[in-house]
Design brief:
Blueprint lengths: L1 H4 L3 H9 L5 H19 L2 E4 L1 H16 L11 E5 L26 H8 L3 E6 L28 H8 L5 E6 L5 H7 L2 E4 L19 E6 L2 H11 L29 E5 L9 H16 L3 E5 L7 H16 L1 H6 L6 H11 L3 H21 L5 E5 L12 E3 L5 E3 H6 L3 H6 L3 E8 L5 E8 L4 H13 L13
Helix pairs in contact: 3-4, 6-7, 8-16, 10-12, 10-13
Length: 466
């Protein structure tokens, strides 16, 4: 089991294609790992053992008959419990949705199935994706700490080697936060790059679909399989799907890496800052040009994030909140009620300022190709904590703490990739995000792959797995 689970998705795909490992063997290894670790990390809402085994047998039969569909064929993956999976309840980790069962797959799940992937189960999310801790789940690196959210179950199972990839959503960092806190790769593509049809929304204007993986190459492979125009999704981009694998080994020589002079290094743990500053130096040693950049309108970023997300979330939940308010968790109910209290004029202003931020960020990229910044300002905190106190006495609620550095890419809709870049003195993972121009996922993946090639952070495993 261990040897199979030590492979990346890309490595496993090669072994399956060449018939050195069967999809059935890979699936059983994942199911065994989930059974052995689920009591510790609680990553899953449900594990679909029978369905996964049937899909694995089907994939094995297809491959043996010479019908290999591509790099996801026979690969065991997991799905965040916001994505519809036909015949399986989409609970959104909420009492409100228990028993609600869709009769069709979400667009992303449909693409996974078309690619021959084996769906292992549905992963835990912070209720309706409206939070960043995923309280049902624990961090594989320390069971007393949060995995991040809202895609916390996806981050935990990928880090715990229970799946080779897991789907996630990102409205204010919900892919990149658990990726950083659990030590995985997390990709939030350009807004509209992956269809959101069949995904329970949090905020139509901010929601992105993406994935958590073990390596940058894995993320590039998955993006190519999942991206594409979907006329059913009003936000879907009618743009060609990029060849994200073509330049993964091209390095970063001549690439202009933006080093933030504001916003990203305000109120940040020393270990996190040191790790990202060291990564800047490593980029320079690989031939990249470091260019100092100042984020435009930094005081407006979180205001726009909440000014759009909260009222849109409240609009989606309006009827349910009145009919079943007692079934919502207290924190989520408070957020939704706060969203209902935001005036329409404030929402409209937030939309207008968002347009201004997008324009200013486009100008920023005239001088750079990628911004390299911390994904989150602090490593995973203990479960149940509600805030962190900084050295200057400032107390920051965790909702702001973990979303603050991810929000620029959500507000502007530009692609962002979180990659492991170190560990704290407490042996907790640290993440760096690489933020690029709209539609240029291939560039941030290229930069991430170059960094990953000269470091070993992504290959480390939680102690309890050894």
């Amino acid at each position: 089991m261990g040897e199979i689970l030590d492979l990346s998705l890309t490595e496993l795909s090669h072994e399956i294609k060449t018939r050195n490992i069967s999809p059935v063997e890979a699936t059983e290894a994942c199911l065994d790992r989930i059974a052995a670790t689920e009591s510790v990390i609680c990553a899953y809402v449900c594990v679909l053992m029978d369905k996964a085994r049937e899909a694995a047998v089907q994939a094995e039969t297809e491959i043996e008959s010479g019908n290999w569909k591509g790099p996801l064929h026979g690969v065991p993956v997991a799905v965040k419990d916001l994505f519809d999976l036909a015949g399986v309840p989409t609970t959104s980790s909420s009492k409100v949705r228990i028993g609600w069962t869709p009769d069709a797959d979400s667009a992303a799940v449909s693409k996974l199935k078309d690619a021959g992937a084996v769906v292992l189960g549905k992963t835990q999310t912070h209720e309706f994706a409206a939070g960043i801790s995923t309280p049902t789940t624990r961090n594989p690196w320390n069971r007393d700490r949060i995995p991040g959210g809202s895609s916390g179950g996806s981050g935990a199972t990928v880090a715990g080697r229970g799946a080779f990839m897991a789907l996630g959503t990102d409205t204010g960092g919900s892919i990149r936060i658990p990726a950083a806190l659990c030590g995985t790769v997390g990709l939030k593509p350009t807004y509209g790059r992956i269809s959101r049809i069949g995904i329970t929304p949090l905020s139509w204007g901010m929601d992105h679909a993406g994935m958590l993986t073990r390596t940058v190459e894995d993320a590039a492979t998955c993006l190519e399989a999942l991206a594409g125009y979907d006329p059913r999704d009003p936000g879907s981009l009618d743009e060609p799907v990029p060849d994200c694998l073509a330049n993964l080994e091209s390095g970063v020589e001549g690439l202009r890496i933006g080093v933030p002079t504001n916003y990203f290094f305000d109120h940040i743990e020393p270990d996190v800052e040191d790790a990202v500053r060291t990564a800047h130096e490593q980029f320079a040693s690989l031939g990249a040009e470091l260019v100092e950049v100042a984020l435009p309108l930094p005081e407006q970023i979180m205001a726009v994030q909440f000014g759009i997300t909260l009222p849109e979330a409240a609009a989606y939940h309006r009827e349910l909140l009145r009919e079943r308010s007692q079934d919502y968790g207290k924190d989520v109910r408070m957020l939704l009620e706060a969203g209902e209290a935001i005036p329409a004029t404030t929402y409209i202003r937030a939309m207008r300022v968002r347009n201004l931020l997008q324009q200013e960020f486009r100008k920023l990229y005239n001088d750079i190709d990628v911004i390299a910044a911390p994904t989150v300002p602090a490593v995973a905190i203990k479960a149940g904590s509600e805030a962190i106190e900084w050295a200057d006495g400032t107390v920051e609620p965790i909702t702001f703490l973990y979303g603050r550095l991810c929000s620029p890419a959500n507000v502007t809709g530009i692609p962002s990739l979180s990659v492991p870049c170190g560990f704290s003195v407490e042996n907790m993972p640290i993440g760096m995000q690489l933020i690029g121009r709209p539609l240029e996922e291939a560039v941030i993946l290229q930069a991430g792959a170059a960094y990953e090639a000269v470091t070993e952070w992504h290959s480390r495993q939680p102690d309890f797995l050894r």
